[in-house]
Amino acid sequence: METINNKYKERDYEVNIRFPEFTCLCPMTSQPDFAEIIINYVPSELLVELKSLKFYLNSFRDKGVFHEEAANKILGDFVEKVHPKRVEVIGNFNVRGGIYTTVKATYPS
User: Fold this and answer.
1) If you average pLDDT over residues 81-89, what whole number do you get?
2) How many domains does the chain have?
3) Catalytic residue among 12, 26, 62, 77
Protein backbone atom coordinates (compact mmCIF):
# COMPACT_ATOMS: atom_id res chain seq x y z
CA MET A 1 0.00 0.00 0.00
CA GLU A 2 1.45 3.33 -1.07
CA THR A 3 0.51 6.85 -0.03
CA ILE A 4 0.45 10.35 -1.47
CA ASN A 5 0.47 13.69 0.31
CA ASN A 6 -2.86 15.19 1.36
CA LYS A 7 -3.04 18.71 -0.09
CA TYR A 8 -6.06 19.57 2.10
CA LYS A 9 -4.80 18.41 5.49
CA GLU A 10 -6.03 21.61 7.16
CA ARG A 11 -9.64 20.40 6.87
CA ASP A 12 -11.43 17.23 7.83
CA TYR A 13 -13.15 15.37 5.01
CA GLU A 14 -14.14 11.76 4.51
CA VAL A 15 -12.97 9.46 1.73
CA ASN A 16 -15.20 6.49 0.87
CA ILE A 17 -13.73 3.57 -1.08
CA ARG A 18 -15.69 0.53 -2.27
CA PHE A 19 -14.01 -2.61 -3.55
CA PRO A 20 -16.78 -4.99 -4.68
CA GLU A 21 -14.45 -7.73 -6.00
CA PHE A 22 -12.67 -8.85 -2.82
CA THR A 23 -11.90 -12.55 -2.63
CA CYS A 24 -10.09 -14.75 -0.14
CA LEU A 25 -10.16 -18.42 0.79
CA CYS A 26 -11.98 -20.07 3.66
CA PRO A 27 -9.23 -21.43 5.92
CA MET A 28 -11.36 -24.46 6.83
CA THR A 29 -12.46 -25.59 3.35
CA SER A 30 -10.20 -23.65 0.93
CA GLN A 31 -13.36 -22.58 -0.90
CA PRO A 32 -13.41 -18.99 -2.19
CA ASP A 33 -15.18 -16.27 -0.21
CA PHE A 34 -16.44 -13.15 -1.96
CA ALA A 35 -17.07 -9.76 -0.39
CA GLU A 36 -17.36 -6.05 -0.85
CA ILE A 37 -14.77 -4.17 1.20
CA ILE A 38 -15.69 -0.60 2.12
CA ILE A 39 -13.11 1.76 3.58
CA ASN A 40 -14.26 5.10 5.01
CA TYR A 41 -11.51 7.33 6.37
CA VAL A 42 -10.67 10.87 7.42
CA PRO A 43 -7.13 11.55 6.21
CA SER A 44 -4.40 13.33 8.10
CA GLU A 45 -1.10 13.98 6.29
CA LEU A 46 -1.46 11.16 3.76
CA LEU A 47 -3.94 9.61 1.33
CA VAL A 48 -3.92 6.02 0.13
CA GLU A 49 -2.91 5.62 -3.51
CA LEU A 50 -5.80 3.69 -5.06
CA LYS A 51 -3.95 1.47 -7.53
CA SER A 52 -1.67 0.20 -4.76
CA LEU A 53 -4.73 -0.37 -2.54
CA LYS A 54 -6.30 -2.46 -5.29
CA PHE A 55 -3.15 -4.60 -5.56
CA TYR A 56 -3.03 -4.94 -1.77
CA LEU A 57 -6.66 -6.07 -1.56
CA ASN A 58 -6.13 -8.52 -4.44
CA SER A 59 -3.23 -10.07 -2.49
CA PHE A 60 -5.83 -11.80 -0.26
CA ARG A 61 -7.09 -13.86 -3.23
CA ASP A 62 -5.01 -16.94 -2.38
CA LYS A 63 -4.92 -16.53 1.41
CA GLY A 64 -6.93 -18.56 3.85
CA VAL A 65 -8.43 -16.03 6.29
CA PHE A 66 -11.58 -15.82 8.37
CA HIS A 67 -13.85 -12.86 7.63
CA GLU A 68 -13.04 -11.18 10.94
CA GLU A 69 -9.33 -11.62 10.36
CA ALA A 70 -9.52 -10.10 6.86
CA ALA A 71 -11.31 -6.92 8.02
CA ASN A 72 -9.00 -6.42 10.99
CA LYS A 73 -5.84 -7.11 8.95
CA ILE A 74 -6.90 -4.57 6.33
CA LEU A 75 -7.63 -2.04 9.09
CA GLY A 76 -4.28 -2.59 10.82
CA ASP A 77 -2.28 -2.34 7.61
CA PHE A 78 -4.22 0.76 6.52
CA VAL A 79 -3.57 2.51 9.85
CA GLU A 80 0.12 1.56 9.74
CA LYS A 81 0.63 2.97 6.22
CA VAL A 82 -1.81 5.90 5.96
CA HIS A 83 -2.04 7.16 9.59
CA PRO A 84 -5.62 8.45 9.20
CA LYS A 85 -7.48 10.43 11.84
CA ARG A 86 -10.29 7.88 11.65
CA VAL A 87 -11.01 4.82 9.55
CA GLU A 88 -13.53 2.03 9.37
CA VAL A 89 -13.25 -1.09 7.27
CA ILE A 90 -16.46 -2.94 6.49
CA GLY A 91 -16.44 -6.39 4.96
CA ASN A 92 -19.80 -7.44 3.50
CA PHE A 93 -19.25 -11.12 2.79
CA ASN A 94 -21.54 -12.98 0.42
CA VAL A 95 -23.74 -15.82 1.59
CA ARG A 96 -22.09 -19.11 2.50
CA GLY A 97 -24.17 -21.92 3.95
CA GLY A 98 -27.15 -19.59 4.28
CA ILE A 99 -25.25 -17.02 6.38
CA TYR A 100 -24.20 -13.49 5.41
CA THR A 101 -21.37 -11.97 7.43
CA THR A 102 -20.66 -8.27 7.90
CA VAL A 103 -17.56 -7.28 9.84
CA LYS A 104 -16.83 -3.66 10.80
CA ALA A 105 -13.45 -2.75 12.29
CA THR A 106 -12.70 0.84 13.35
CA TYR A 107 -9.79 3.04 14.37
CA PRO A 108 -9.61 4.52 16.85
CA SER A 109 -11.71 1.89 18.56
Assistant:
1) 98
2) 1
3) 26
